[in-house]
UniProtKB/TrEMBL annotation:
Organism, scientific name: Thermostichus vulcanus str. 'Rupite'
Taxonomic lineage of the native organism: Bacteria, Bacillati, Cyanobacteriota, Cyanophyceae, Thermostichales
Any matching Pfam family: XdhC_C
Record-annotated XdhC- CoxI domain positions: 17-73
PANTHER family membership: ALDEHYDE OXIDOREDUCTASE MOLYBDENUM COFACTOR ASSEMBLY PROTEIN, XANTHINE DEHYDROGENASE SUBUNIT A-RELATED
Domain of life: Bacteria
Entry protein name: XdhC family protein
Domain XdhC Rossmann residue range list: 171-315
Gene3D superfamilies for this protein: NAD(P)-binding Rossmann-like Domain
């Protein structure tokens, strides 16, 4: 998700000044959490959201003022969602609005894109000081969620917003059949980088999977070295038969691959057959815990599109639970 945001932000900055609004504090019930972003371009284009409604309209109005101002380059805005007509959520949001423009902003966005491409370990530091521009740091490598910190430098002490630059999670879809096509599209919209693996090269085409970052016609076992380098991996097994499921689960067990999510399509009978087959080989069911099988949230899905929606919903649920656990 961040990769897409900064890719479009770079394009907007090339056309003129942009104001980026970031949620830095929340209290009570709010539509978006700390770290959510909204950008307003000089041409009126909007990127991202901090929750919509009258509260977002207020932020856009403040951003329009900042776009036209010469000074300051940043300002804090508070939204009290208990006040009509801003909503009835009952909470409060504080946002930092920063004007991004010129060569410095373009260079910073390029650095951010490079950091996201190479993996985690870098943070975007935004001093809450109108005279200071955001910069990159690797001081807080263990940080997995954005937060405010008081940072001291040689010449100043300033409250700053520290935002870890985390690459989008990767979803590996094993099986390029009729369910894989809508899942690749919908999961891409939900912020996942898409890899597709299938041993039928004729199924792996850019026309069938325009959102895929990588098409993988090689055997699944040959992918293990590349998969082991991914820190945020989700796997959806949408194979054409239970024997392939057994083969892939054997490989995963032998490789001791780390992943956030593993789901397997099929009826309960097929799932039971797969797990019993592996158990007879000495591979217990809990070797894959948690295993989401049958895959997807139970919404009585039947069509490929409905199944893809149920799987994506489960991916989002798992990802958000992981993120929340990191914040505790």
């Amino acid at each position: 998700m961040e990769e897409a945001f900064y890719r479009e932000l770079a394009e907007m900055i090339s056309l003129g000044p942009v104001v980026v609004a970031t949620v830095i504090r929340t209290q009570g019930s709010v539509p978006r959490q700390v770290g959510a972003k909204l950008a307003l371009g000089s041409d009126g284009r909007l990127l991202g959201t901090i929750g919509g409604g009258a509260g977002e309209a207020k932020v856009i109005a403040e951003a329009q003022i900042l776009l036209q101002a010469t000074d300051p380059a940043g300002v804090e805005v508070s939204i009290d969602l208990r006040d009509s007509p801003l909503g009835v959520c009952g909470g409060r949001m504080n946002l930092w609005l920063q004007r991004w423009q010129g060569s410095l902003a373009q260079a910073r966005v390029t650095q951010i894109q490079q950091a996201l491409a190479t993996g985690g370990g870098t943070q975007l530091i935004t001093p809450l000081d109108p005279q200071r521009f955001p910069y990159l740091s690797s001081e807080f490598q263990s940080l997995s969620s954005p937060q405010l910190k008081v940072l001291r430098t040689a010449d100043a002490t300033c409250e700053s917003f520290v935002d870890p630059l985390l690459p989008s999670p990767t979803l590996l879809i094993v099986g390029a059949g009729h369910c894989g096509i809508p899942l690749a599209q919908i999961a891409h919209w939900a912020g996942f980088r898409i890899w597709i693996q299938d041993d039928r090269p004729e199924y792996l085409t850019p026309e069938r999977f325009p959102t895929a970052q990588r098409l993988c016609p090689q055997p699944f076992s040959d992918l293990i070295p590349d998969l082991s380098c991914l820190a945020d991996l989700y796997i959806a097994l949408l194979t054409r038969g239970y024997s392939l499921d057994c083969q892939i689960l054997r490989t995963l067990h032998q490789a001791k691959l780390s992943y956030r999510y593993l789901g397997m399509i099929g009826s309960r009978k097929r799932v039971k057959t797969v797990l019993q087959t592996l158990a007879q080989e000495g591979i217990p069911e809990n070797a894959f815990a948690p295993l989401y099988a049958p895959i997807g949230l139970e919404i009585h899905a039947e069509t490929p599109a409905e199944i893809a929606i149920s799987i994506t919903a489960q991916l989002i649920q798992t990802r958000r639970e992981n993120l929340l656990s990191c914040q505790i």
